[in-house]
Design a protein that fits this description.
The complex is a heterotrimer. By secondary structure, chain A is α/β, with parallel strands linked by helices. Chain A has helices at residues 50-57, 84-90, 112-121, 128-141, 147-150, 160-172, 190-207, 218-224, 242-247, 252-260, 304-307, 327-343; strands spanning 6-19, 22-35, 39-43, 67-74, 77-78, 95-98, 178-182, 210-215, 227-232, 235-241, 312-316, 319-322. Chain B is an alpha/beta fold. Chain B has helices spanning 3-13, 70-77, 100-107, 127-138, 145-156, 173-185, 203-220, 231-237, 255-260, 265-273, 282-288, 317-321, and strands at 19-34, 39-55, 59-63, 85-90, 93-94, 110-113, 191-195, 223-227, 240-245, 248-254, 327-328, 337-338. Classes of the chains: A alpha/beta, B alpha/beta, C mainly alpha. The structure holds adenosine-5'-triphosphate (2 copies), iron/sulfur cluster (2 copies) and magnesium ion (MG) (2 copies). Chain C: Belongs to the binding-protein-dependent transport system permease family.
């Protein structure tokens, strides 16, 4: 998977938190890479380690309570082992982040403009006046009407969609090469979500940055991502191009995600096909394949799923799957059993 | 789907239709006060004159964006809030202004499921106490004792009856939502109003709860009003769907009719905004998408005439002066009501992403 | 905003009226319910040897025989127009802002209190400066180094500091630093600032430190809790993600938000102290308002006590008002709501 033109290269990333209840293995051996101008979608349910991964890439974990190991290299610079000051200078300038809830992610006491100016000036040696001009310019670019007036407003005076636009303006103010959006539209209405996704797509083309979009909404992934990484229990369980993941998924968990989701572009299915059980605990991760307690196909691997962790193995070109079932059997189950049920309509 | 088949499918259902709940001209205005004497200077017109029926045994979906008045509508029809104007008929009786005491017998028949499975259960009570509370409050006799009744309910919603003595924090989000559902089922209600029952849950868990709601409806003959902002979930679960915008119902129809032939420009925009989980259709979706500009106006001072006109690409002069009535348009399926002067036609080229700007 | 301030002012006046009415009731009504007559009350002011006629005359001259609400009204009115009293033959005048007249000391209450205000103000503000700097700094460092030895030691001491009564710490420090080591001045040695600023500070050093210790402990704990909460906020993560220096993140983004509730409490605490740091002043025998109140209570001089209560309540109410307005200025969400 590591592409030669990779801009971001993550190898065997592990982020563990020692807590009173035990070691929380939030991210446990994650490997992926991303080229400039490309978009990676990371999906997975709550607690699967998506946010912890993104904070890790920005080097935002506190050394005192997080154990980070492995390698994260951004254009050749290793973030895990670099000194904090080097990483700080990269943050905001070379890599930036957009968060889920734009109201709580902005400081309530400072104006929107002030917060963008601050982000710009920390990396660019310019006067306040120049930075303010830049902030107004950025607000205009993300589609805020009357930016020279709104620049002096406080975050709470903006609507939800405008706040997220302002967050994007702030993240893009230093023209970063990597942009990570952690659930950027989850808190927004669907019509506003459409606007924001559209904006992100346009801006990515304009800036040619690498984009990681983290979400639990497969629709959002399908709209934006070139490649998709499915996480479960801190591990990547399936990786492939967006078309592969939506049309030829091979991991039972991915099937479950697709079956759980009602779709507007199809007829109404009789019944959703949920995944039984509950998400795993990250302290006592189930032995073997972390998904085995919820997996309907666990018996097919003769108990291997309960004892041995499956490797993330190549199943087709650029398609990686972490499952003990033989590739042919997975393809057969998908084509003969799962896909027909997903497409069945009443 | 063509209109004639839509018409037929509705027609076959018509004879069995009997309204369990009916709202007429329902309004809720929250006063805004100001100044030294706290005079009322304005009102949040959260719900501003809506009419709809809920038929026995069906599921009515209520969709719309944040703040359009969905929850307020839910609170009005369960009479957790008193309407400012209008009438609510439940099972043939007018309950619009009944006091707490007079409402009590009706409370058994209508129950509410809330969005947040974490804050809606008292953390200091056991599951048994929580699910059994309605029996005590309403003074209901249970043939084999309350404990048996509660354990039967737990089984019904797919929980282990042995969980009787556990506390809510020992359960996951999906399990808590099941506890909440078990509680609402205790008194065998006729109508259940579910306000965003799955939006706080993970996708895989959402599907479990949606299936559970459907199974219970089939088994117990329940009537649902499901409030949600997720159009796909609403389509999956509802028989009929009402679309709200700024305190008004702008379109209400049979599910099939609404999703295949949306008439109101807002409904069209709303549906086209839903991301489609098909990466191959990405470009096509983007081209067809109607991108609304601007924000939803304030419910304190909504636009005159049609409330959607400030963001509508079809607006004409009449839209600013005359409020369009919610009526069935010629050629539409029976019961497909739209509040628009210029409804979107079947194969109309709707504004793409540039034209809507 | 203006309407808000006016409404708050109305509220403040109303609060003072209610406080005064209740206090007045306690001092003038409760003794009567307990069976005391107007003459019993008056007998305190005319000396032991007075005969019943003199007592009755005094009771009448002081208005003690009037109905409660008339008495209260007379008292209230005096604040605006002043009042005359008669003790038998002698007449006394209490000029316009009349908060009462001490029949024992034979002088109006307010000038006495105002005379003592500089002492109390010196004590309160000096201590406040020390405890804010010291308490907030300790709290911030503790929060940033949570779980460290510094944190645990500081919080341990703070817990002790909060629970030790001031008369105990005051006396112990007097014994050690003043009487034994002779580093500081003994109790009761107050020098006004206009006489000699150096002496003034020197004379107040021990009371300041003792009082500040108590408040520092509370403020350190408050600041620590506030900082821990704020540093966990999403906007702090955003600030770091922007690449800001940790120092900027902590001071500009963290501390600014964490200090808002502390500023509120600070205003109220200073307001409270301005009405008399009763324990500290009596422990160190400082001639401030608190000492005045204690003396008045010991002497059973009700008009003095009454005047003190209203004066102190006034400070608390004013502090409250200022705090609310300041809060609205600090937090734009409140200001622009
Ligand atoms: N500082 C921490 N200390 C201990 N555990 C942590 C810490 N931060 C995160 N975790 C745990 O790591 C796991 C992964 O968290 P993460 O926030 O990455 O989930 P996520 O995939 O982003 O989920 P969501 O969709 O809910 O945002 C969670 O179980 C969380 O409790
Ligand atoms: N108690 C109240 N006092 C004043 N205004 C209120 C009150 N409750 C609701 N509102 C206002 O009424 C409008 C409709 O609110 P409601 O909660 O019904 O919206 P909703 O459609 O349920 O939105 P959401 O999807 O965000 O839950 C909003 O503008 C809201 O701010
Ligand atoms: S390894 Fe076994 S348990 Fe895990 S997903 Fe594959 S079949 Fe299921
Ligand atoms: S009535 Fe006019 S403004 Fe309203 S939706 Fe229809 S066309 Fe648009
Ligand atoms: Mg997350
Ligand atoms: Mg709601």
């Amino acid at each position: 998977m590591p592409a030669p033109d990779a801009f971001l290269d993550v190898r065997d990333l592990r982020i563990h938190f020692p807590t009173d209840d035990g070691l929380v293995k939030s991210v446990d051996g994650l490997t992926f890479s991303l080229a400039r101008g490309k978009t990676l979608g990371i999906v997975g349910e709550s607690g699967s380690g998506k946010s912890v991964t993104s904070l890790g890439i920005l080097g935002l974990h506190n050394k005192r309570n997080a154990r980070v190991s492995g390698e994260i290299s951004l254009d050749g610079t290793d973030i895990v082992n670099a000194d904090p000051e080097t990483v700080r200078k990269m943050r905001g300038r070379r890599m930036a982040m957009i968060f889920q809830d734009p109201l709580s992610a902005m400081h309530p006491y400072y104006t929107v403009g002030h917060q963008i100016i601050e982000a710009y000036r920390v990396h660019n040696n310019v006067s306040k006046a120049v930075a303010k001009k830049h902030a107004i310019d950025m607000l205009g670019r993300v589609g805020i009407p009357q930016p020279n007036r709104r620049v002096d407003d406080y975050p709470h005076q903006f609507s939800g969609g405008m706040r997220q636009r302002a967050m994007i303006a702030m993240a893009l103010s230093c023209d970063p090469e990597l942009l990570i959006a952690d659930e950027p539209t989850t808190a927004l209405d669907v019509t506003v979500q459409a606007q924001i996704l559209d904006l992100m797509r346009d801006l990515q083309q304009e800036f040619n940055s690498a984009l990681i979009i983290i979400t639990h909404d497969l629709g959002v992934v399908a709209e934006l991502a070139d490649d998709v990484l499915v996480m479960y229990g801190g591990k990547c369980i399936e990786y492939g191009s967006a078309v592969t993941i939506f049309e030829e998924p091979e991991h039972p968990y991915t099937w479950g995600l697709l079956g759980s989701m009602p779709r507007l572009d199809r007829g109404v299915t009789n019944r959703l096909l949920p995944i039984s059980g509950n998400p795993p605990s990250l302290i006592n991760v189930p032995s073997g394949c972390a998904f085995h307690p919820r997996c309907a196909y666990e018996a097919r691997t003769g108990g291997l799923g309960t004892t041995t962790v499956p490797e993330l193995a190549e199943s087709g070109r650029g398609h990686l799957v972490r499952c003990h079932m033989p590739v042919a059997e997975r393809k057969r189950i998908w084509n003969e059993q799962v896909r027909p049920k997903l497409e069945a309509t009443s | 789907m063509t209109e004639s088949t839509a018409g037929e499918s509705v027609a076959t259902q018509t004879p069995t239709k009997e309204a369990l709940l009916s709202a007429q001209g329902l309004q809720k205005h929250f006063p805004i006060t100001k100044g030294l004497l706290k005079r009322q200077v304005a009102a949040v017109k959260a719900v501003d004159g809506i009419d709809f029926d809920v038929y026995k045994g069906e599921t009515l979906g209520l969709v719309g964006e944040s703040g359009c008045g969905k929850s307020t509508t839910g609170r009005l029809i369960t009479r957790l809030a008193e309407p400012t104007a209008g009438k609510i008929m439940f099972d043939g009786k007018d309950i619009s202004h009944l006091g707490t005491g007079a409402m009590r017998p009706f409370r058994r028949d209508m129950q509410m499921i809330f969005q947040d499975p974490f804050s809606s259960l008292n953390p200091r009570h056991t599951v048994g106490t929580i699910v059994g509370a309605p029996f005590h409050i309403q003074g209901v006799k249970t043939p084999h004792g309350v404990k048996r009744a509660v354990q039967d309910l737990l089984k019904l919603v797919g929980l282990n009856p042995e969980h009787y003595n556990r506390y809510p924090h020992e359960f996951s989000g999906g399990q808590r939502q099941r506890i909440g559902i078990a509680r609402t089922l205790a008194l065998k209600p006729k109508l259940i109003i579910a306000d965003e029952p799955v939006s706080a849950l993970d996708v895989s868990i959402q599907a479990q709860v949606v299936n559970l709601l459907e199974d219970l409806q089939n088994e117990l003959g329940l009537t649902y009003v499901v409030i949600a902002h997720d159009l796909s979930v609403v389509r999956h679960i509802s028989d009929r769907v009402a679309v709200m915008y700024l305190g008004k119902i702008v379109e209400i129809a049979d599910r099939e009719s609404l999703y295949s032939n949306p008439r109101h420009p807002y409904t069209v925009a709303l549906m086209s905004a839903v991301p489609v989980p098909n990466p191959r259709r990405r470009e096509a979706n983007q081209r067809q998408r109607v991108l609304l500009t601007g924000d939803v106006p304030s419910p304190i001072d909504p636009p005159t005439g049609c409330r959607f006109r400030t963001r509508c690409w079809k607006a004409q002069d009449i839209c600013a002066t005359t409020e369009p009535p919610l009526v069935v348009r010629e050629g539409d399926a029976p019961g497909h009501q739209t509040a628009c002067h210029f409804p979107v036609a079947d194969n109309e080229e709707v504004a793409g992403r540039t034209a809507a700007a | 905003m203006v309407a808000y301030i006016i409404r708050r002012l109305f509220g403040a006046v109303l609060t003072l009226l209610i406080v005064s009415m209740i206090t007045f009731g306690i001092f003038y009504l409760v003794p009567r319910w307990a069976g005391g007559t107007a003459n019993d009350l008056a007998s305190r002011y005319v000396g032991r040897t007075a005969n019943p006629e003199q007592v009755a005359e005094a009771a009448h001259g002081l208005g003690l025989d009037k109905p409660f609400f008339v008495q209260y009204w007379d008292w209230l009115q005096a604040i605006f127009v002043g009042r005359d009293f008669a003790f038998g033959a002698t007449q006394a005048h209490c000029p316009a802002p009349c908060l009462g007249y001490s029949f024992i000391g034979r002088n109006p209450v307010l000038p006495d209190i105002l005379d003592r205000l500089p002492v109390t103000a010196s004590l309160a503000f000096g201590a406040a400066i020390i405890w804010v700097i010291f308490g907030v700094a300790t709290g911030v460092v503790s929060a940033l180094k949570r779980g460290s030895i510094f944190d645990r030691a500081a919080m341990g001491i703070a817990l002790g500091g909060v629970s030790l009564p001031i008369f105990w710490t005051g006396l112990v420090s007097l014994v050690i630093f003043s009487y034994t080591l002779h580093w500081t001045k003994p109790g009761g040695a107050y020098t006004p600032i206009e006489q000699n600023p150096g002496e003034w500070a020197y004379s107040l050093l021990l009371p300041w430190i003792t009082l500040a210790l108590l408040f520092s402990a509370a403020y350190a704990r408050l600041t620590r809790a506030g900082m821990l909460e704020t540093m966990g906020e999403d906007y702090i993560r955003t600030a770091r993600a922007k690449g800001l220096r940790e120092r900027t993140v902590v001071t500009k983004h963290g501390l600014r938000a964490a200090l808002t509730p502390i500023a509120t409490i600070f205003g109220l605490d200073v307001g409270l102290l301005m009405g008399g740091a009763v324990l500290t002043e009596s422990t160190f025998s400082l001639p401030g308002i608190g000492k005045y109140a204690i003396d008045a209570i010991n002497a059973n001089d009700m008009p003095k006590v009454m005047g003190f209560v209203i004066f102190a309540a006034g400070f608390v109410v004013i502090a409250n008002l200022i705090v609310d307005v300041v809060y609205a200025v600090i937090d734009p969400r409140v200001r622009l709501a």
